[in-house]
Amino acid sequence: MVDVEKILITRATKIIDALSALDASGAGVLLLTAPDGRFERTVSDGDLRRQLLGGRRLSDTLESLPKIESIVATQGLSRRDVLDLMNRHAIDHLPVLSESGRVLQVLVRREIDDQILLSTPHMGDAEREFVEEAFRTNWIAPLGPNVDSFERELAQCVGIQHAAALSSGTAAIHLALVLLGVERGDRVFCSSLTFAASANPIVYQGAEPVFIDSDRESWNMSPRALERALEKARREGKLPKAVIVVNLYGQSANMDPLTALCDRYGVPVVEDAAESLGATYKGKASGTLGHMGIYSFNGNKIITTSGGGMLVSNDGAMIERARFLSTQAREPAPHYQHKVIGFNYRMSNILAGVGRGQLRVLDQRVQTRRAIFQRYKNELSDIDAIEWMPEPEWSVSTHWLTACTVRRRKSGITSAVLIRRLAEEMIEARPVWKPMHLQPVFSGCESFDDGDDSVSERLFADGLCLPSSSNMSDDQLSRTIECIRRVFLSE
Ligand SMILES: *Cc1c(COP(=O)(O)O)cnc(C)c1O
User: CATH number of the domain at 126-359, out of 3.40.1190.20, 3.40.640.10, 3.90.230.10, 3.30.1380.20?
Assistant: First the structure.
């Protein structure tokens, strides 16, 4: 914050004193005021230089400084408005005036231009070394020692036997479906409340997605809705080839009842743990509770390789087959024999190096994201219109994203209003995923609700995710919390 008192000058100020004030304050600008204290114009070191070049001496006053109309702001402008004003006029300082024309404060670009994003990459100390090793040894390919080590280290980290490093989480889901024999005309059940990447691979295989609602306790797949869907499918003789259970925002679904149901109907489970690496369900790692699990290392996830994914399973033959399919399904022959259609889905050795470094800080990232959630929860506990994503007793969530709902009747404020107000302050918040059964691209697909109405639709209507980056500063988190308080307490 600029100390306004230190940069106030008048036309009676000598050029040399103006230069000293400029030098001492470090603000980069002076405020020329009339004798009655009203603001007249800003003065930069360029203005002072031009005075000297025009023949004035250091001991002369600013009497002959030209009159110009400086850009000023009034109180109550949003951060976004202030930055737009600065950009439009190519200025770095903006005096804020009172109604009587006095300077209340000076806004400085480097303080204003600070966007707070939902979830940003956060590198540790070791990534660079692993990547440099790949360069030094010229392993610049979608195979190599980092890939092998990353697979081993991740498998060990989550307590599973086998892992295949791939180019994305989406690729991992796609290969899981290929390995389970999903084909044209088959059906695959999938959580409705998720990102489209969970369901798209079903359509890549020409199969038909069926969407399953969330439950209230975990926001993840509802065992009740799944049971109804499986029962109906059995009656119709069209049981799905797989069920994709998604773990949202760092939290496991209630896996025991879900896997028990799937076992009863003989349907394999693919756990989409793209958002829940580092979380546990009854002490076991999220992503390891189905027949296969997938993780994502996209740039926004809790750890990242910039882009990447992992398919994990205790079935070694499956993972071996995944490696084969992900490298173009080349049979071991010098002329590249092919018996099945393959994919180019393998992770590069460079990115696997990033992944190895990231894995070493995963625990820290989980602790930080959980602490961010706790701060939101504690410091907004008096705003009872906000309800936090629940964490059932069987779940330890990473809180990859801090998610909440806004009770609209109570506050008059909707999640959409809150998101817009945060955006005005250059704070990125987003609605909870739009359920897949509401997406135009899946409009023809069957879906099953948790009860009489749709939990996922309710969550979409009222829910939002708040900035949760593990490398956001305490100040940025305070700014976000302050902004939320202002939205609720001023209305
Ligand atoms: C990010 C994400 C994916 C896709 O992972 P990519 O690595 O980006 O392909 C799949 N499912 C969910 C729930 C995700 O959040």
Answer: 3.40.640.10
